[in-house]
Amino acid sequence: MTQLLEDALRKVGELPEDEQNALACQILETLEDEEAWGKTLRKNPDKLRRLAEKALNEDHRGTTRPLDEIL
Q: Could you tell me the CA-to-CA distances from 15 to 20, 30, 38 in Å, in that order?
């Protein structure tokens, strides 16, 4: 485990139990999402290439918007 992660977990350990649980749920959900994406892309490596090409084409056409405008 890295020092940064140890420091983060130590700070999390100082929070109330409900906040610790909320953070744990967020971390686990993120890890599950990453694993799901990894599986999807391992099954079909061309999918990421196609998604990247689509994003680049949209950017070249000027049809993309900054993320802060969307959120």
A: 6, 20, 32
Question: What confidence tens digit (pLDDT) does each residue in 17-65 have?
Answer: 999 999 999 999 999 999 998 898 888 888 889 989 999 999 999 998 8
How many structural domains are present in the chain?
Answer: 1
| 40 Cβ contact partners less than 8 Å away, ≥ 6 residues apart | 47
d(CA 31, CA 57): 30
CA torsion angle 30 9 5 29 (round to 10): -10
- Claim: this prediction has a pTM higher than 0.85: no
Instruction: Residue 64: give the domain boundaries.
Output: 3-70
